[in-house]
Amino acid sequence: DKKEPDAKIAKTEEETPDKEEEEKSTKAPAGSSKSGWKNWKKTKESDSGGEESKITYCHWLLKSEPESRLEKGVDVKFSIDDLKAQPNQTTFWDGVRNYQARNFLRAMKLGQQAFFYHSNCKEPGIVGIVKIVKEAYPDHTQFDQKDPHYDSSSRKENPKWSMVDVQFVRMTKRFIPLSEIKAHHLAHKADGGPLKNMMLFTRQRLSIQPLTQEEFDFVLSLEEEKPH
């Protein structure tokens, strides 16, 4: 039984990287200080006959587009209100076509929380919190020729792309704009605060981003403050 093919998760997806990017995708971004990545736990896991370093994070940031935009004739808009309108306020997070973002999806664990981030819009920022309710499994849109994220090079016996299921948890107490998070990031770069290496600013184009416990807690604390 086929899931609805259109009006699904919007992506602010970067251009699909080449093989070199795929190989680099499990490493920390160049230039990162050790402290920013101290929560990485690396374990070796056999993957398709080869060993790949798996990195586990506690929290995530998921970007989606709240405004209509056609991609190959399909509207890829998906706001947090669209998520709330889904049955059981749950949906699959499909359409990710970047190897590093895919690897982050595959590292997600049941029950972990993520910020829902509105991107590619007039004022981007964090609007709510979701949780992972199903760990990574093959993204069916890669095999659907009518889907804007169809990938003719992916094979059902060895799918390239994965997705997870997410469920709405709550709205943040207020909208936390990118501009405000960036101001803290710049201040923390100077004084060594928790947002100094936040991937939202070091790898801006990634639609799936990991957060350390310190980053998540600090950003969440902003919802209690009056907007500047």
Written as H for each helix and E for each strand, in order along the chain, the element string is: HEEEEEHEHEEEHHEH
What proportion of the residues is helical, as a percent range? 10-25%
Structural class: alpha+beta
Q: Based on DSSP secondary structure assignment, what is the total number of beta strands?
A: 10
Indicate the overall shape. globular
Give a quick account of the main beta sheet: strands, pairing sense, barrel closure: 6 strands, mixed
- Strand-residue proportion: 25-35%
**What is the distance, rounded to the nearest whole angstrom, between the alpha carbons of the first and last residues?**
49 Å
What is the mean pLDDT? 83
Widest beta sheet: strand line-up: 6-9-8-7-3-10
State the low-pLDDT regions, or none.
Answer: 1-10, 15-56
The Rg value, from CA coordinates, equals 17 Å
Please tally the helical runs, counting DSSP H or I stretches of 4 or more residues. Answer: 6
GO cellular component, one term: nucleus
Biased composition (Basic and acidic residues): 1-14, 42-51
Organism: Mycteria americana (Wood stork)
Subcellular location: Nucleus
